[in-house]
Every structure is written in C-alpha cells, then in structure tokens.
Backbone:
C-alpha cells in the first residue's frame, strides 16, 4: 500500500533543521558554498563526489521545465525556486567547484517522438563534457527497441525513466524488449517511479514490483528513495540485489515537511548502504547543493556509509577511477 505524500512530520528520521532550510522566498546559493562542500569532503575523507541525478537538457527543454516550477510545479501551493538558474557553463562550473567528479544529464520525454532527439543531444553533451556520464532515455513507442540498442552501442552508460512525467505503464509491452536489453547489458536506469512529489497514473511500487518479477536482474536506481513509498521500495531493494536507490531530495528539510523518511527504517537504510547513491536534482532544487550533503550526514549512519553513498557506490557501479 502506498504511503501518503502528506505524511506527518513527526515520523521523520531527523528532527534537526538545517541551516539551509527552505522557507518561502527565493533560494540563493551562498558565496562560500564551495568552501562548505569542501569542508564536508574533508570531514569524510572524500576525494570528490559522484552525483547520479543531475539535469542537463537542451536549452529550450530546460526553460520549459523551469517555467513549470515557476508557474505551479509539482506541489501546488508550495514555492519551488530554482537555486541554480544559470547558464549551462556556469552550472557545470558549480558542480566542478563542489568537487563533483562525475554526474549525469538526466532528461526524459513526455510524449512519443522526443526520446531519439533527446538522446542525440545527450550524446553530443557527453562528448563535449568528459565528466558527464553519457545519459539516455526512452518512451514506449514504435521503434524504441531500435534506438535504445543504437544508443547503447554508441556508449550510453545510464538511462533515465520518468514514469510520472511520461505517464506510461512501466510494463507496457513496447518496453519489454528494452528492459530485457538493459538487464542483459547491466546498464543502470535511474527511474522516477515513486508517487512524490506528485503522483501519476502509473507511479508507486506495484508496477515496479511487477516489472522486477519479470526482469529480476534489472539494474534500476529508484530516484528520490522512492518517496513517499520509502518502505515499499526498500522492500524491493532487499528482494532484488541489482536494485539501488538515490538520495535525490530525500532527507532534506524541504521534503521532510511533506514526506518524511520514517525513523523506523534507519536500520534498513544502513544495511543497504552499498546500494544507496548520491543524487541531488541539481540545478532544479529549492535550496543550496550543500544541504543535500548535510542531510545525508545528519542521518548519523557513520562515515563509511556517507563515503559509500557520496562516491564509492557509484564509482563501483560505473567503474570510475
């Protein structure tokens, strides 16, 4: 059964507010944020970060995404200012200043006919951005098997599937050969399938449970820790060794007010420490980047856990140096 996005604050895993809380008003990256991130890296003896959930898209697509957040966004009645509303080269510079050694260009179609040209853009972006993992996407449409195969052959290292935005059933028969192909290749798919921050017709754990029952070796990375259905997606990660979760927006003050991570699951989160990956949703976040790192740190699961989540797990998954 799905957990409600509007779960009570009292069930949160953390009760300590961060200095970077996300109250009303525009969020702004502090001038000394790079120093704050550097201090975090020093505290945990980290040579850098690997962020598996960052967004780089064609300019006109990204502008539409920002306009969506400006107008209403996924949480009606909640302000969602874009902290890093900057030009592409500035955003790249930010990540590098923060010590992010590898990242992704998460992009996704909302209708048929978009995925192929998005993949072409992403391939070019990866070619001119060596620290970006070559990212790709897909949509249930005729020809999807062909262009996913071509994209894999061109060197794609990670895919993005957005069940809520795409409004598609993950078990659509058109996608069955794609899932099989990606399972065989061992290529991770960062998948937004939880019902937060806004539910969709096909979000929630049930469709993904059915998908994994048919493709148990599928290397899904459940975006946002599966919020708000955290427990259900932890269940799936325990059941399927290739399933991972990313931290995107989870544990932050902004999300804890709406969909707190249950304290009762802290032990399971610790036990799955080798399959939790750092994700942030940069640049489309309503608070500074360092707040995601601090939110992971304040869980109190230990330095080894923090190091694994912030770098080592993704470095092993993507065979980074």
Residues:
């Amino acid at each position: 059964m799905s957990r409600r996005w509007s779960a009570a604050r009292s069930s949160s895993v953390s009760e300590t507010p961060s200095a970077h809380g996300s109250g009303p008003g525009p969020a702004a990256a502090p001038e000394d944020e790079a120093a704050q991130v550097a201090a975090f890296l020093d505290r945990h003896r980290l040579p850098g970060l690997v962020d598996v959930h960052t967004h780089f898209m064609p300019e006109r697509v990204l502008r539409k995404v920002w306009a969506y957040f400006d107008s209403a966004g996924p949480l009606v009645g909640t302000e969602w200012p874009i902290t890093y509303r900057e030009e592409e080269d500035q955003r790249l510079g930010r990540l590098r200043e923060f010590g992010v050694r590898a990242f992704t260009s998460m992009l996704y179609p909302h209708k048929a006919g978009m995925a192929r040209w998005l993949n072409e853009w992403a391939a070019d972006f990866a070619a001119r951005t060596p620290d970006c993992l070559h990212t790709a996407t897909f949509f249930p449409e005729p020809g999807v098997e062909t262009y996913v195969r071509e994209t894999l052959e061109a060197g794609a290292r990670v895919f993005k599937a957005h069940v809520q935005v795409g409004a598609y059933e993950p078990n659509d028969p058109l996608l069955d050969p794609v899932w099989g192909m990606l399972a065989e290749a061992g290529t991770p798919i960062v998948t937004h399938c939880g019902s937060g921050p806004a539910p969709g017709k096909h979000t929630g754990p049930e469709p993904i449970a059915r998908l994994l029952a048919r493709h148990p070796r599928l290397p899904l990375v459940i975006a946002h820790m599966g919020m708000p259905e955290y427990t259900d997606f932890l269940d799936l990660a325990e059941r399927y060794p290739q399933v991972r979760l990313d931290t995107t927006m989870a544990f932050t003050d902004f999300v804890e007010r709406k969909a707190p991570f249950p304290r009762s699951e802290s032990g399971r989160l610790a036990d799955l420490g080798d399959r939790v990956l750092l994700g942030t949703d940069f640049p489309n976040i309503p608070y500074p980047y360092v707040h995601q790192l601090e939110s992971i740190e304040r869980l109190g699961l230990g330095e080894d856990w923090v190091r694994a989540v912030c770098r080592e797990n993704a470095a092993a998954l993507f065979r980074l140096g």
